[in-house]
Structure formats: C-alpha cells, structure tokens
Write a sequence for this structure.
C-alpha cells in the first residue's frame, strides 16, 4: 500500500521533464524534413526562352490541298538557258513544251527546241504508269524514220540488288533551306533553295565555285511550277510551267500516232 502512492508521486514529478524532451526531439527533427523536401521542389524548371522556334512568316496564299489522286491538267513549259562566255558573249537557247496528264496518271510531253539558226526539232514522249511503258518519237528531222520506240519499264524485284563496287566519292559543302511559300499562277507553292560549293582544286578549278538550285512545287497538282539552276560551268537555266488548265485531256493524245511503226526496245 505504501509503494503505490510513491510510484504515482514519482511519475507526476518526472512527467513534465519527459514531455519536454519528447517535444524538443520532434522539434529538432522538423528542419531535417524540410531540407529533404526542398530539392524536390526545384527538380523541374521551365525551358529557356531562347530554345523556342520563331514563328514562320505569314503567307497570303490559298490553303494547300493535297488530294489522294492527282487531278488531270494541261500546261505549257518554257525552258530558257543563258550561257555567258569568258569574253562576255551570251548564248541563249529556248525550248518549249506542252504537257498533259489524265486521271490515270498517264502523261504526255511535246517538246519543241529552237536552235540559234532557227531550226526546230519536235520530240514526243508518253508515259503510262499503269501499263509501265514509255513511248517516244521525233518529227521534222532529216531522213528520220517514222518509228515509235516502246520501252517496257522493269517491274520491282523482290531479289536484293548486288552490292555496288566501292568507289571514291567527293562530298561538297551542301546547304538546303526552305523559302517562304508563295502563290504562282493561283496555286500554292512551296520553295527550296539548294546551295553547293565546290572547293578549289576538286574539278581542276583554281577557286571555289558555287552552284544554286531553286525549286517551287505545287502540292495540289504534284508538279514543279518553277525551277532555276545557276551553274558557272553550264550557265543559268530557268524552267517555268504556265497556262495551267485543270481539265481532262483527250484520250487520243496517249496513243501512238498513225502511220508510225512501233519498235519495242526491250521485251
């Protein structure tokens, strides 16, 4: 009976001290919890503003439309080549052609090349992607036979092609850049500019040579509307597609002409 009151008295005496030590221990651990959670809050950060891609320049062009099947069309092409000689003389040659494409993808091209003396040569070419054949013939050539050359395009082979022999190749500095889109003859066109630099000594040149190639492509028709090639070795060549009519051509245009013999160049 004496032990019970003494025990209670001792517990009441030391209880405040034990409670104070427990609170102090929990208070001492609190900063450690805050230090461990601080790095987590700083793991993610916003991307630098300098890595954002600038917006492309606006184009006042019609919305590009890429159909599943390319539509038929009729158009004209003009190719002008200007070659400047070392003494400043310019030699200009112009060739024109008419092109057709039907709903099946067959194409025909009639080309007229005019030489400096006024002589003209006509050449014709038809390509049928369904039958995989190409026909070509010429007219207005002296003593030229009336023959249509028929060439069968090879079918895709499932057999792997033999490895080509390794040859030494030279690689020139090459740069390609996209040009702001524009409207050409009412069609939306995308442009690219290719620049090729041939270092001195690569082809016997005593200084660097730069060639450029500019191309404008109409996705809605799948054709090139304008191409400009500038090469100091060959001159400047410009090809433009004009007078575009999005209409179906006459099916007779994709047949061999009457009175011509068809000669198959490969069976």
């Amino acid at each position: 009976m004496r032990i019970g009151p003494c025990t209670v008295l001792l517990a009441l005496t030391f209880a405040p001290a034990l409670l104070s030590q427990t609170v102090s221990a929990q208070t001492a651990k609190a900063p450690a919890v805050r230090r461990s959670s601080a790095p987590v809050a700083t793991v993610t950060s916003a991307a630098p503003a300098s890595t954002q891609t600038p917006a492309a320049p606006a184009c006042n062009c019609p919305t590009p439309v890429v159909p599943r099947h390319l539509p038929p069309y009729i158009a004209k092409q003009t190719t002008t080549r200007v070659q400047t000689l070392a003494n400043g003389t310019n030699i200009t040659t112009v060739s024109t052609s008419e092109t057709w494409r039907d709903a099946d993808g067959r194409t025909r091209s009639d080309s007229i090349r005019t030489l400096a003396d006024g002589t003209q040569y006509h050449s014709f070419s038809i390509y049928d992607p369904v039958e995989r054949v190409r026909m070509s013939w010429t007219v207005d050539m002296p003593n030229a036979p009336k023959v249509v050359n028929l060439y069968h395009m090879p079918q895709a082979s499932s057999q792997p092609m033999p490895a080509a022999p390794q040859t030494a190749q030279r690689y020139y500095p090459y740069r390609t850049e996209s040009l702001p889109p524009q409207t050409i003859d009412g069609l939306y066109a995308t442009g690219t500019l290719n620049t090729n630099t041939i270092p001195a000594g690569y082809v016997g040149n005593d200084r660097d040579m730069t060639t450029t190639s500019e191309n404008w492509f109409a996705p809605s028709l799948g054709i090139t509307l304008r191409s400009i090639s500038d090469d100091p070795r060959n001159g400047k060549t410009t090809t433009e597609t004009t007078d575009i009519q999005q209409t179906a051509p006459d099916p007779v245009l994709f047949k061999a002409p009457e009175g011509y013999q068809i000669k198959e160049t490969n069976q």
